[in-house]
Amino acid sequence: MPVSNSKSLKALIDERFESDSLQLPVFNRVALELQKLKQSGNASIRQISDLIMKDQSLASRVLRLANSSFYGGLKQVETISAAVTRLGMNRVANLAMVASQLMAHDIQTKAVIHYMPELWRHSFVCATGGRWLAQQTGYDALAEEVFLAGLLHDIGELFLLKVLDLLARDAEHPVPMTKALVGEVLEAMHNDIGSRLLAKWELPEVYSRVARDHHLDGFNETDVILVITRLSDIVCHKLGIGCEADFDIVLAATPEAQVLGLREIKLAQLEVLLEDVVAEANALIVAPK
């Protein structure tokens, strides 16, 4: 990946990772703190609510998500504490991460801007499909972890797009960007960068592992969260959600489906579900900020 100055593009990206990975708006700090508070195991509704309310933009998005068709009840919730009471602390913590990812998908450079809605759509749909799979295969206790793993499995792509955007707009040494170059960078680097980023942010190791291994030919078939995320990701690829469709994929023949004991009928239900979730993802993209 050569560029016009004396450093390779990979070297420039690695430099940005070392210097800017804690500052680039890939995660919202409140959403990250919320995940860590959730991990403590003794968080209260008051603590969760107070933390979310530190960021009014995040709080408003969490409320909108809590009242969306996917999560809402018969009556709208008007406070964060009511949302936590209705949905539970784990679900609200994950909604905060969804909201933070929506806020992060903002880019200016023409060569990378079209990737953002597709990346968001793919991540959200993969996460929702993964949660459904966990519930359908006897791993309901892992459903929220699977959801977050799906949401973050391609976080390396978001980080790389942010860095490429900055490099393209550098005032002194702008790096020329083409769609082909951007695609090459994403394919070559997003697994490793995503894994390193999640580790640097001190999120649980499982999310870093999923980011690293979700495309590996050989993978740990006993790692349930990884297996489910991989299968949901494969279904997204078959349907063309965030990528070019590959209708030739036979889901029941995949190692992931076989490990989970899934047959054609259940996999067909998953395909229908994900097609419906795309509409929800699209609505969240265009929802007013």
From TrEMBL:
Gene Ontology MF: a single term: kinase activity
Pfam family of the protein (one): HDOD
Domain HDOD as annotated: residue spans: 24-217
The keyword Transferase is assigned to this record: yes
UniProt keywords, alphabetically: Kinase, Transferase
UniProt cross-references to PROSITE patterns, sorted A to Z: HDOD (PS51833)
Top-level taxon in the UniProt lineage: Bacteria
Protein name (Swiss-Prot/TrEMBL): Histidine kinase
Annotated source species: Chromatium okenii
